Structure to design on (339 residues):
């Protein structure tokens, strides 16, 4: 079996052709990964503990970490100001180190809704929230969110009124985004852990909202 | 969609899909499978060991390994393919030894690998 030829295809995209949402090869690549791992262990390029350590680091982050940052910002205006000024530093204050890139936090208001995508790859704040959801890495989400964000949001059951601006943030190798959802009206008076419980992963991406904008 | 001179194709790669037409977003959840985790961990471990590979290199490979593979494979499958290609390029493994090992593992489980179709099936 010869390898696939590798050639740079800089002009391969036909801008009128819909994306192809392929998800083939899972069993094949599960097996390839297993084979590759065994070979790397035999060659002593990797030790078993090496991948165990990375897997532990992959499994540690979770949505609650992002939710705690949001809850803190909802309760503490000075923390919120620091979070919007420097997301990475404010996350570190809460004990979370954003390893892969600079964290940029974007705030939803009564007039502005933010949503996050990565059109080129699937950049996501993994060291804070864990792995991205299935739909975030799908080509339909990557392709369409920058073109018709309101239509995509409607598919998630989120209707953004016409008077509310929708702003799309395209992630890249150097910047990862996190949405600061609009706080419930009584947020400052509610217990921290209760606020944490209100925040879902999709709210942190912008495909869900705590309360409809029309009710604001 | 033309260049500054008003003609020619848009010069961008097949991975640069922002703004293209697409179907409905499948708003479903899928687990982070063990093999996907292992694949990411192999890359991460090799990156931590003297930067044997980097994520930028993996991206370079799957952003140039051909539109057909990019379109047909899933996200983690593309990354797994790119990892093997990259380690082959760096002469850390050969593709032949990886494919041979896949055949051996599959055979021990009563399975057969079709490398052209990229499938694994029961014998």
């Amino acid at each position: 079996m010869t390898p696939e030829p590798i050639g740079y295809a800089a002009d391969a995209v036909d801008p009128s052709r819909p994306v192809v949402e392929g998800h083939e090869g899972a069993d094949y690549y599960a097996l390839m990964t297993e084979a590759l791992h065994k070979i790397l262990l035999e060659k002593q390029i990797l030790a078993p503990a090496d991948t165990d350590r990375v897997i532990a680091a992959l499994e540690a982050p979770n949505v609650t970490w992002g939710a705690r940052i949001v809850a803190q910002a909802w309760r503490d205006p000075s923390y919120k100001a620091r979070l919007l000024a420097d997301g990475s530093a404010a996350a570190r204050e809460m004990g979370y180190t954003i390893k892969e890139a600079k964290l940029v936090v974007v705030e939803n208001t009564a007039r502005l809704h933010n949503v996050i995508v990565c059109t080129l790859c699937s950049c996501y704040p993994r060291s804070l929230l864990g792995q991205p959801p299935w739909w975030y890495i799908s080509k339909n989400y990557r392709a369409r969110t920058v073109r018709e964000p309101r239509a995509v949001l409607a598919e998630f059951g989120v209707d953004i009124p016409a008077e509310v601006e929708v702003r799309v943030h395209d992630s890249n190798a150097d910047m990862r985004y996190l949405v600061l959802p609009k706080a419930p009206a009584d947020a400052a008076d509610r217990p921290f852990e209760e606020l944490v419980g209100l925040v879902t992963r999709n709210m942190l991406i912008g495909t869900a909202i705590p309360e409809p904008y029309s009710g604001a | 969609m033309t260049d500054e001179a008003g003609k020619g194709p848009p010069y961008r790669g097949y991975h640069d899909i922002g703004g293209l037409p697409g179907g409905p977003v499948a708003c479903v959840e899928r687990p982070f499978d063990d093999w996907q985790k292992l694949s990411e961990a192999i890359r991460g471990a090799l990156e931590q060991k003297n930067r044997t590979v980097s994520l930028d290199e993996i991206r370079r490979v799957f952003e140039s390994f051909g539109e057909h593979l990019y379109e047909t494979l899933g996200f983690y499958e593309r990354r797994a393919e790119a990892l093997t290609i990259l380690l082959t390029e760096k002469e850390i493994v050969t593709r032949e030894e990886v494919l041979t090992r896949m055949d051996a593992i599959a055979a021990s489980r009563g399975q057969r690998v079709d490398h052209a179709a990229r499938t694994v099936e029961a014998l």
